[in-house]
Amino acid sequence: MKFTSAHTVRFLQLLFSLTLLTGLTYAQRSAIPADNRAAIREADIKRDLFAIAGDHFRGREAGTLDELKASVWIAEQMRAMGLEPAGDDGTYFQFFHIQRTRITETSRLSIGNHKLTHGQDAFILAPAIASVDAPLVFVGQGTPEDLAKVDIKGKAVALEFSGTAPAELSYRRFLFGTMTRRANELIKAGALAVIWVSNKDAQFYFERWTTGLERGRYDLPGGPNTRVFSQAPTVWLPADVLDWIKQPGQQFTNVVNVESFNYPSVNIVGKIPGTDPKLKNEYVLFSTHQDHDGVRRAVAGDSIWNGADDNGTGCAAVLAIGRAFAQKPAKRSALIVFHGAEERGLLGSRYYSANPTVPRESIVAVLNGEMMGRNAPDSAALLGSQPPHLNSVALVNSALAANQSLTKFKLDTLWDRADHPEGWYFRSDHLPYARLNIPAICFTSLLHPDYHTPKDEPERINIQKLTNMTRWMYLTGWTVANRAERPDLVKDFKLER
Locate the Peptidase M28 domain: which residues (predicted)? Predict the structure, then answer.
């Protein structure tokens, strides 16, 4: 075959593509010192996982003494391994407030002669001021045919929840999303309130997930979720009310008041100074979150929602990465950040990214660890690896090269797509940094059936997989911390929402 100039151009393009895939040219590889992956040991990771996700810390709910106690334990581990304090006032801690808005105990709810109590036998989906006294109509499953038979304007509308989530989705997200969307449609059509009654499929999740509705909603002080407003109520009831909810001529009475107050939460921050006189003023940030759901109503006799995978695995991984850098620092400094109140809406990472304890422009990359120890042993995902979530080609290529050379996970790309209904990219602590145009990626092994249930226990974690995920995250960060150039930022990077 005769080579033409076009063949030469194509060859050079392929060569360039291979360079991007590996993320390293030969010159760059030779400039990067040997890493310290041997310091990341299964025994250490297992010990730390069982400690942070054990019953002793009672699920580490944000804004409670349990979260603060777990945070002190993490800070002590950082001190013992030699990390320098990098929080406020020479400590490992950066405290911040979270604001909670919840329905008051004085709120009243009744249907006919049945008095219901929010948080026990009825749950209001959003804490908003409401005062409704209206006739109740039952519209079956709320199909167009059902609604055509009833005038819903000026009435409280009760309907049976039906529908199942596609297999690849979290049923909780599907259920709440469906309830909210359908309720908004009915309210727009003139309903004064919407009452969902669980069917046999939804009843299991009524028992499992309504505990979160007891808490209300959270935000940083002054954030959008702190605003108190009036809203037509959406109520969720258990399946056993279905017989009497159908009875005609009943009145729906609902008076909802809300209250708001602040709690303390905390980020834990440590650093390992770099060895290069110039590059040590730049930071590779390794992040995770220490909080979970705390102590809630018991499910199958277990009231402690330990969050071993979410996010005890991330905690154990980032501690191991900190240990490896402490034993062998890189040219750039490593910044280790445990974010508080992630489960309340990424509050700790939103606060730290807005109030960093190092100059924001000195953070060259954020590597976040979120749920790293379940599902198939050879599967994983890298969030932020494809447009529109891709904000640094060099950072992603470093991660792909590390996986190719070391861990060889089969990478799931579906969950990072903009059209994936779970919106997984938007649900962990890399997000606030990406919004500030800091190169950011997230290492995860994705959701599983025990997600946000008491079954998310340390015994269910694949320690070997978690160790491999940790090594992958570490090697990516080690490469970035030793490369001469900081990771690029994609021009005109913009998220879809």
Answer: 267-473
